[in-house]
Amino acid sequence: MSGDKHPFVDETARKTSTIVTKHSIAIPEDEQKFKKSERAWNWEKIVDLFFPEEQSPKRNKYAKIFLRELKGEGSIDSEKLNAFDEWGHEKGKSNLKNKILPKLRRLGVIKYEYLEYRDSREGSKGRRKLVKPAKSFTSVLDSMANGWAAFESASYGNQD
Questions:
Q1: Domain extents for the chain?
Q2: Which residues contact 18 (CB under 8 A, 6 or more apart)?
Q3: Would you place residue 144 in the very low, low, confident or very high pLDDT band (cuts 50, 70, 90)?
Q4: Burial of 50 (0-12, 13-18, 19+ CB in 10 A)
Q5: pLDDT of the residue at 1
Q6: Cα 51–57–61 angle (5° rounding)?
């Protein structure tokens, strides 16, 4: 069996340094770009953890275009999202809606709010999606950091 390939092993994934899934973030080994001693990384560097440029350059680019706009506007409605190809300068809307936004939402970077509306001409009503920055990613990172600091403190205390 040593020469046979295991049915669950993805050979291409084994060759990459990090495996990025829809639920993960990865801290690459690039010591120049990701200096662990820096007090704070800028937001674009953090996006590189969600969508590593070397693995998904288009998602990385579209996520940065979207977040730059969100940072400037404070919120983005569904009408503006539907025009992403115009402000994203190429055909990235489906990638944004199907891959990037769901991952950013799962990670707690963005949140959706829905606004009820009624069209005055037709009397129809509906909901408009509004994308806003969320604070839950910061809370998760704070909880992780505090939990790990407690772990380190306990383990150092046991080194007599």
A1: 41-147
A2: 26, 28, 52, 55
A3: confident
A4: buried
A5: 46
A6: 80
